[in-house]
UniProtKB/TrEMBL annotation:
This is Chaperone protein htpG. Belongs to the heat shock protein 90 family. Pfam families: HATPase_c_3 (PF13589), HSP90 (PF00183). SUPFAM superfamilies: ATPase domain of HSP90 chaperone/DNA topoisomerase II/histidine kinase, Ribosomal protein S5 domain 2-like. SMART domains: HATPase_c. InterPro entries: HATPase_C_sf, HATPase_dom, Heat_shock_protein_90_CS, HSP90_C, Hsp90_fam, Hsp90_N, Ribosomal_Su5_D2-typ_SF. Residues 25-165 form the Histidine kinase/HSP90-like ATPase domain. The keyword Translocase does not apply.
């Protein structure tokens, strides 16, 4: 006999809310219904395991079918099914989650975490796409009668006896006119692929099993080979290059979390590579926007995190304040640091080979997270121009004796472009100084951080001063020129250069140092860099022209020759020497370059 009734008071406003609130995400109905079907089959397994169900389980499976002509989507399972009473209780009284009762009854059997649904939207999300929903279901309980429930999206429902051979549930959606896009098999396949790819029970669509019910993150690391991890990466990102290495996460206290994080080969465009971590709850895909769950600097990693303890359908600000999320954040950071330390200790060669790809994570992490800095300071590497790698400690040991200045400050030299700054790198090497390669965007911040954290240490770009000034020692160099000669030389050069932004100075350098050296002071450059990246209230600096220091080597024979040259030739030679300095730094162009070439031809012609 058919029975009619009203869905409980809680539901008065639920349908408009479901339709409106979830408007943008209608496709989620399929995730919810397939998840319910999967839960029902899992419960069956559970009942069989604890001896409550003695029959043959058969092949537990969920099937999704689309009948475009009849405008119907059916989600079927051979799980526990429901009696008419259970439908009334679990489906009609929607505020009363069936899972709660299930857990109550079986909590002593353990593993109830596996059973509780956490997705919050539930069965009624079906009404986002259907104007009539039917359930035909038969309980696993012996002698149960099948039941047929129908509801048209109002608060009224009908329930009647039905015929169904096997236990299990068919949820039948009569798709609404405004949702017919979901009758396209391609669309359904895409949705299944997104949310159901790793559900723990086989899901069939169009005669095929579309999921991998045993993804590797649910297994023990000891069961898995490197090949397994690499293959899984391919499964997740079919078009990506093989990952460098990975971390298998596995924790059950104080929260539950499993997963695998991969270190990808980094491309230049970091933005594109973000949001490559997928968040699951009990193998159901939730989102790939993991901001707040994963520390910012680790968002460049790829992979999967699965946790039933992450609150899912809550607002962002709540997520940030959630204590589980904070713990998860800390845990992941620690695991990543430990893993890196492990590789560094066990296989430094591999660590060095991969440095180009991982240094951005590590530096970014050190900059943004003090705890990570504390761990990473032991394995962060500095690379010098000879492509050798040192830890901070090792590098200090290497340079301390030779590169400590007269004030006891250790000066580490670096280049941002070993080719362009070649003359300066060579001048440093001539003094047996070591030069680091710090050339990525993040390095300018990294340099600042090192200066703050390392005691009595500064970093200077190799072309920011003449070598004698970069690392000032106590020794004073004798000058071959007296003060009047120096003053004369300065004036000759000033006239020859004729540019206010070039600060000329005459200094006694080594005779084999270059005759003219042009430098952009470290302080000036950093301020300009800062204003370019919009920080530090230094915006005005960005518009100022670069002011270079031009150091004339008093001890170089050319400069002595200039003083002795005929008056009309003095400035010509000075200009030529200055242009050569510009040339060595790639700063000579336009009419100055043309003039230089002409002058050079003249000079050769005269020889
Ligand atoms: N395919 C099914 N087979 C058996 N029981 C089902 C099925 N679908 C739903 N149910 C019952 O209906 C209840 C309500 O489902 P609903 O999806 O609204 O909430 P839930 O699954 O408990 O929690 P969630 O909000 O996570 O979905 C379930 O707990 C379950 O007892």
């Amino acid at each position: 006999m058919e029975e009619r009734g009203n869905i409980s008071i809680h539901t008065e406003n639920i349908f408009p809310i479901i339709k409106k609130f979830l408007y943008s995400d209608h496709e989620i109905f399929l995730r919810e219904l397939v998840s319910n079907a999967v839960d029902a089959t899992q419960k069956m397994k559970r009942l069989s395991a604890i001896g409550e169900y003695k029959g043959d389980l058969g092949e537990l499976k969920v099937t999704v079918k689309v009948d475009k002509d009849a405008k119907i989507i059916t989600i079927s399972d051979n799980g526990i099914g429901m009696t008419a009473e259970e439908i009334k209780k679990y489906i009609n009284q929607i505020a009363f989650s069936g899972a709660t009762e299930f857990v109550e009854r079986y909590k002593d059997a353990g593993e109830q975490n596996q059973i509780i649904g956490q997705f919050g939207l539930g069965f009624y999300s079906a009404f986002m796409v259907a104007d009539r929903v039917e359930i035909i279901t038969k309980s696993y309980k012996e002698g149960s009668e099948a039941a047929h429930w129908t509801c048209d999206g109002s608060t009224e429902f009908a329930i009647a006896p039905a015929h169904k051979e096997d236990q299990g549930t068919n949820v039948i959606l009569n798709v609404a006119a405004d949702s017919e896009e979901f009758l396209e098999t391609a669309r359904i396949r895409t949705i299944l692929d997104k949310y159901c790819k790793f559900l723990p029970v086989p899901v069939e669509f169009e005669g095929e099993i579309i999921n991998n019910p045993n993804p590797i993150w649910t297994k023990q690391p000891s069961e898995l080979t490197d090949e397994d991890y690499k293959n899984f990466y391919k499964e997740l990102y079919p078009f990506s290059e093989a990952p460098l290495f990975w971390i298998h996460l596995n924790v059950d206290y104080p929260f539950n979390l499993t997963g695998i994080l991969y270190f990808p080969k980094l491309k230049n465009d970091f933005e594109i590579q973000r949001n490559k971590i997928q968040l699951y709850s009990k193998q159901v895909f939730i989102t790939d926007e993991v901001k707040d769950v994963v520390p910012e600097f680790l968002m460049l990693l790829h992979g999967v995190i699965d946790s039933p303890d992450i609150p899912l359908n809550v607002s962002r600000s709540f997520l940030q304040a959630d204590s589980n999320v904070k713990k998860i954040n800390t845990y992941i950071t620690k695991k990543v640091a430990d893993k890196l330390n492990d590789i560094f200790k066990k296989d430094r060669a591999t660590f060095e080979t991969n440095w180009d790809d991982i240094n951005v994570f590590i530096k970014y992490g050190m900059l943004s997270d003090d705890k990570f800095y504390e761990k990473a300071k032991d394995f962060v590497l500095l690379q010098n121009t000879e492509a050798k790698y040192y830890t901070l400690e090792e590098y200090k040991a290497l340079t301390q004796a030779n590169q400590t200045d007269k004030n006891g400050q250790l000066v580490m030299l670096y280049t941002t472009d070993a080719d362009k700054q070649h003359a300066f790198v060579e001048a440093a090497q001539n003094r047996s100084y070591d030069v680091l390669k710090l050339d990525s965007i993040i390095d300018s911040h990294f340099i600042g951080m090192l200066e703050q954290k390392l005691e009595k240490t500064s970093l200077k770009r190799v072309d920011s001063e003449t070598i004698g000034k970069l690392i000032e020692k106590d020794e004073t160099k004798d000058s071959v020129l007296n003060d009047t000669e120096k003053e004369d030389l300065k004036k000759i050069y000033e006239t020859a250069i004729n540019n206010q932004n070039m600060q000329v100075e005459v200094a006694p350098l080594a005779p084999d140092d270059a005759p003219v050296i042009i430098t952009l002071p470290e302080f000036m450059r950093r301020m300009k860099d800062m204003s370019k990246s919009g920080g530090g209230g230094m915006m005005f600096m960005g518009n100022m022209p670069d002011t270079y220091n031009v150091t004339i080597n008093a001890n170089h024979s050319i400069n002595q020759r200039i003083l002795k040259a005929k008056d009309d030739n003095k400035e010509r030679i000075a200009r030529q020497a200055f242009d050569l300095a510009l040339l060595s730094q790639n700063m000579l162009s336009g009419s100055a370059l043309t003039a230089f070439v002409k002058r050079s031809v003249d000079l050769i012609d005269k020889e």
